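Task 17 of the worksheet. Students: predict the tertiary structure of the chain below and write it out as structure tokens. Keep your answer in the requested format; marks are given for formatting as well as content.
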Amino acid sequence: MTARVLAIAGSDSGGGAGIQADIKTITALGGYAMSAITALTAQDTKTVHEIVAVDPGFIARQIVVCLGDIGADAIKTGMLHDVPVIEAVAQAIAEHGAGLPLVSDPVMVAKGGAALLEPGAVDSLKRVLLPMVTLLTPNLPEAEILAGMAINGLSEMKRAAESLRSLGPQAVLLKGGHLAGDTIHDVLAIEDSIEIYDSPRIETSSTHGTGCTLASAIATGLAQSMALPDAVVRARAYVREAIRTAPDIGDGYGPLNHGHTAMPFDGTRNARQET
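Model answer:
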């Protein structure tokens, strides 16, 4: 049976991020994508021009009817912009999707700089949602807000990932793309170990929707019964190829090539482990 993934996220009218990126990614990796849209955005590659909220009750309704009829093998959350939305999503998942792998991308700021999470909602995100999460996938600015610490290097990334795990997630994948340097380090804190994934930086402005894409790719792997580290490896490979082959679209941060053929997964992890 095709692995079913429910993506709970905002809509990006430009097609590069949000629910559009989720659906493309899940489909490209062989999954079946469903959606619960949390917000509508008028967005292009340069910025978010306007946001229209979706009623929290209707967001929950989308989740409930999808899980009740089609079911799911994994859930991915993205833009949850305020306290009522966070609480509605968490309650719907707890009541209708308990026990399913849950990958949460704590979307706070769009690539162009627009705020996508109300400041007062951070505490709600930490208190209500994170204890339910299988894998949290923050970038460095998001991790700094959630962990309450500055992150300026790999050693601080490792401390922050462990700190974020103490908030409730079973695992944390801290993405290091915001740090300067020719090599990008991603840190996976899982159980009693740290795994570090290194990759050469691809110099490009076509990075719109990378976080959404990575989280959805991992969720698809979990839905397909992959072990979490293996799902992370395949997802990183998929995202890197999507960046490398990205089309030249728009005048800002361009979208990825979600439709490329996923790179073969050979079973290796390409990570060093620390205990």
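Marker's comment: The radius of gyration is 17 Å. The longest strand covers residues 32-43.
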